[in-house]
Amino acid sequence: MRQNFDVKGGPQLGRKNLPLLRAAMKAQGLDGFYIPHEDEFQNEYLPACNDRLTWATGFTGSAGAAMVFQDTAVIFADGRYTLQVRDQTDRDFLEISGLPDPGPFGWLAGQKRKGETLGYDARLMTPNDLAVLEESAKKAGVTLKAVDTNPIDEAWDDRPAEPTEQVVPHAVKHAGEEADDKRERIAAALKEDGADAAIITSPASVAWAFNIRGGDVACSPLPLSRAILKADGTADLFLDPRKTSDKLREHLGNKVRLRPMEEVEPALAELSGQTVSLDPALASAWFFGELEKAGANILPQRDPVLLPKACKNATEIAGTEAAHIRDGAALTRFLHWLDTDAQSGEATEIDAALKLESFREQLGDLNDLSFETISGAGPNGALPHYRVSSASNRKLERGSLYLVDSGGQYLDGTTDVTRTVPIGEPSADMRRHYTLVLKGHIALADVRFPEGTTGTHLDALARHPLWQAGLDYDHGTGHGVGVYLGVHEGPQRIAKPWNSVALRPGMIVSNEPGFYREGQYGIRIENLQYVTEPADIEGGERKMLGFANLTWAPLARDLIDLELLSPAELAWVNRYHNDVLARIGPLVDGEVLDWLNAQCAPLS
């Protein structure tokens, strides 16, 4: 079993730990302290030892922040976590506010705290965020102080140990390019920009650039690591020595100097007088401070690994396609189970999550889940990032909807798929809302678009059918996905907030519009797809990019209201199901194959 369903977080943590934090703050002369969700590596999913926001507040969401003063404390969470943050925090200890409006910085700007001192940990904040915090602090009359030691770390007596999972080579048959060649490409870009070196602070970027993987972060094969890539093609790689091996050293070769993590600070000092590329959106403010102290010339620019990593090569696309077909067979077996055994109304959310996990395990090549399965029955499905626990576990009751969002980590690809299915007979509203979500999904899957288009330009396509009905959803429509890396990967995304990164061939994104009726049900349909090369359109004047689908599993035909589909949309569904049958049919048999044939039969 790769996941457990223990109760995580909860209001008892805030009740217990906020007084301990305030005592540690007082000892450092702090009236307040800012707590971001992110850790030293700006990770979304955190090792237990770095989950400071949960320790202080009890909130376990993957996005959030808190402002803690001696007389008040506020937790900030976005629309995905509106209900979760209420359940996991004690209102006597923590007020609840929203992200991004007002967010912690907007809230602070509206306070009157002249003469007070607010602490922050420069290792946990990017300079972009720090600049906004500084402006907000001025408006509030607050003096900022960078702490040498995080007061949470001082107060956290039972803090878990740092992970020490082995770092292993990632074979070129999966990566599609030798690590030396990748770094030579990066070196050429650095030379062109006039940089002598680039500091790589993101573990995902390090993993890609060196063709290595690790196990320090749950559900993501990442080694906690840093690197300095140099314009001459050599590199320094910083790892805990306990994670290294002779096999790893042989893989890295003589162009890479392997150094312990403790040498990051002196290595930055060695860059004195050099021009150093550093990403102000990813690297912590601490790195900028150390380079300034060393007398380096800082070149603020995007992590040079991000775009090459995001634009998958032919090997990565082929591997991802193969992983999705295998994963689709496991998901199809699960959907058959949902449509047969689970229709009794007695199966629970945990039963379902474990059943799907078991089908993936039977593939024989599952290395991990790509995130904890979102297994939401009835009203729990209305929580977009719901995590089932032994305390929240519900039955899949007849007359309800069940939403499952899940994925796997395989050596050749990372999967992420969401399906919503009826348990028993669905209502007319359920069918209508599902079909509106499906229409938006089809619009985004089928679109053609010119070079230079960003995900922000496309986001409204997926929302349009819902908007016309006066409906919407409070999360992004699509995120980037790695190849045996993080299930959430930038810099591309499809969402309302502006994104300046144009979609490029080889980028993988999710397509996941949804609708959530609080207290009743949630609906989301998610496939992964990748950007195709520009191609001519008959009668057109410009080449257009498009999307190719990666995810193959039947849709819930009992939830589709055919009267709401246009002829073109109906044709899309039938084509999709025909392709599902062609790819998944050979991998299943017996009752499952019979069921799949019926599910993929043409709708009319």
Automatic annotation (TrEMBL):
Gene3D superfamilies in alphabetical order: Creatinase/methionine aminopeptidase superfamily, Creatinase/prolidase N-terminal domain
Keyword set includes Amino-acid biosynthesis: no
InterPro entries membership: Creatin/AminoP/Spt16_N, Creatinase/aminopeptidase-like, Creatinase_N, Pept_M24, Pept_M24B, Peptidase_M24_C, X-Pro_aminopeptidase_P
Keywords carried by this UniProt record: Aminopeptidase, Hydrolase, Metal-binding, Protease
Domain Peptidase M24 C-terminal: 543-603
GO molecular function terms attached to this record: metal ion binding; metalloaminopeptidase activity
Name of the protein described by the UniProt record: Aminopeptidase P family protein
